[in-house]
């Protein structure tokens, strides 16, 4: 009898020791490696170069992106009724880790000069944008993984996405340093979504095949998630324009705003029409209203007139809302892939839709209206090949990452402890009295 009473306590202690025994050493090891790499390979941007850049404007845009990554994605991940601490806290952990790794990889692959990486506001902004791809992937497995698994996933996802950027960067231009109107970095939505979906599919286990009792939301957590969606909505124009040349920024800001506005209206429309009782679903509004920013970001170089941006936003809002209403439930039942945050509907499908608009407009536009010579020419097949590369890399690397994350070494949470903060966080009101 005594032994049976001690079993739950021993199991709880083993779970605690597993987290304590894995998270601190891994975090310390990674930070030590990062500090050493920063010590030998980085330096701050030359002040003489900084004088020629409008640093005030660039810092403002960087902060806008930073707010999106930290506050926007963080609050948006708090929608689960018993996973608010983990949703926001693990988002901060993944973002902090991803930014450091992305800064180093971006420097080594694209800005390594004379043995050094120059760190400045622009490189920090680029790292933040790349870190968003890891947060998108995290959304597909939210609640079903522990922080150590998320750290492993973030490192591999950022590495894969940077490799994808480098491949497209070399492929797109006759000269690798030449600017091109195609922005491969904006394919982060497609890459991050399908990477995360493949990880979620590989990590699927019988205990999570049916809807988990804690995989739900309520009014309080829904309100916090709405705040996150509003932060993302407000600052998305900066996200799409921060890395563009000065003359293209204002057009990108205006196009993104118009696209977001039309996708928001579309999300309300579809949510009400498809509801059996004619009522709107706040989860649909939180997510589908952002689809316009995703789609127009992928097609930002061709969305240079207002009506085009609005058509892209309207289409993205419709596709995203319908995906949430009909596709997400079937994804789990038919394909055994549980997409916690609905990243397929928010980022994956709108990203593909934006690329389809890019192909269509780029193909139909006259040659003298196109910017930037490249090996691509004007063939839809060649543009489609870029999307195929993105999907192939994201799915294959996601599968490999999922297999690595399945190792028992990482001590994945038990089925009954998924979507629950108590497995990882201290709560004062639950403290034992002595």
TrEMBL record:
Gene3D superfamilies named among the record's database cross-references: Ammonium transporter AmtB like domains
Subcellular localization: Membrane
One cellular component term from this protein's GO annotations in UniProt: plasma membrane
GO molecular function, one term: ammonium channel activity
Domain (Ammonium transporter AmtB-like): residue spans on this chain: 42-405
Keywords linked to the UniProt accession: Membrane, Transmembrane, Transmembrane helix
Membrane topology: Multi-pass membrane protein
Source superkingdom: Eukaryota
One Pfam family named in its UniProt record: Ammonium_transp
Ranges annotated as spanning the membrane: 65-85, 92-112, 124-143, 184-203, 223-244, 256-273, 285-302, 308-327, 339-361, 381-404
Listed GO biological process terms: ammonium homeostasis
PANTHER family per record: AMMONIUM TRANSPORTER, RH BLOOD GROUP, D ANTIGEN
Reported function: Functions as an ammonia transporter. May play a role in the elimination of ammonia in the gill.
Similarity comment: Belongs to the ammonium transporter (TC 2.A.49) family. Rh subfamily.
Descriptive protein name: Ammonium transporter AmtB-like domain-containing protein
């Amino acid at each position: 009898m005594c032994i049976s009473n001690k079993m739950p306590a021993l199991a709880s202690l083993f779970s605690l020791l597993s987290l304590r025994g894995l998270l601190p050493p891994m975090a310390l090891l990674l930070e030590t490696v990062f500090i050493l790499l920063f010590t030998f390979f980085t330096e701050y941007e030359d002040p003489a170069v900084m004088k020629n850049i409008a640093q005030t404007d660039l810092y403002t845009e960087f902060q806008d992106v930073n707010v999106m990554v930290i506050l926007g994605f963080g609050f948006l991940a708090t929608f689960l009724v018993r996973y608010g601490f983990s949703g926001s806290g693990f988002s901060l952990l993944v973002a902090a880790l991803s930014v450091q790794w992305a800064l180093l990889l971006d420097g080594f692959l694209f800005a390594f000069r004379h043995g050094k990486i120059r760190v400045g506001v622009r490189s920090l902004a680029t790292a933040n944008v790349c870190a968003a791809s890891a947060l998108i992937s995290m959304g597909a497995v939210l609640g079903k993984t522990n922080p150590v698994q998320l750290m492993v996933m973030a490192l591999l996802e950022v590495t894969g996405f940077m490799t994808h950027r480098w491949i497209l960067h070399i492929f797109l231009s006759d000269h690798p340093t030449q600017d091109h109107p195609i922005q491969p970095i904006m394919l982060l939505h497609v890459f991050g979504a399908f990477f995360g979906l493949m990880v979620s599919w590989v990590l699927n286990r019988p205990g999570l095949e049916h809807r988990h009792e804690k995989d739900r939301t309520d009014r309080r957590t829904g309100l916090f998630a709405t705040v996150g969606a509003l932060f993302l909505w407000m600052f998305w124009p900066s996200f799409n324009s921060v890395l563009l040349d000065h003359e293209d920024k204002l057009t990108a800001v205006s196009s993104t705003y118009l696209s977001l506005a039309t996708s928001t209206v579309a999300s309300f429309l579809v949510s009400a029409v498809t509801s059996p009782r004619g009522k709107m679903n706040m989860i649909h509004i939180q997510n589908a209203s952002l689809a316009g920013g995703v789609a127009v970001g992928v097609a930002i170089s061709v969305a240079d007139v207002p009506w085009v941006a609005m058509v892209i936003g309207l289409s993205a809002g419709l596709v995203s809302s319908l995906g949430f209403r009909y596709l997400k439930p079937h994804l789990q039942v038919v394909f055994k892939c549980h997409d916690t945050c609905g990243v397929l509907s928010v980022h994956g499908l709108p990203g593909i839709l934006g690329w389809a608009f890019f192909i269509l407009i780029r193909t139909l536009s006259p040659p003298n209206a196109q910017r930037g010579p490249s090996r691509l020419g004007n063939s839809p097949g060649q543009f489609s090949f870029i999307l195929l590369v993105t999907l192939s890399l994201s799915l294959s690397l996601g599968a490999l990452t999922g297999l690595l994350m399945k190792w028992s070494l990482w001590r994945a949470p038990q089925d009954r402890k998924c979507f629950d903060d108590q497995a990882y966080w201290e709560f004062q009101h639950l403290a034992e009295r002595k």
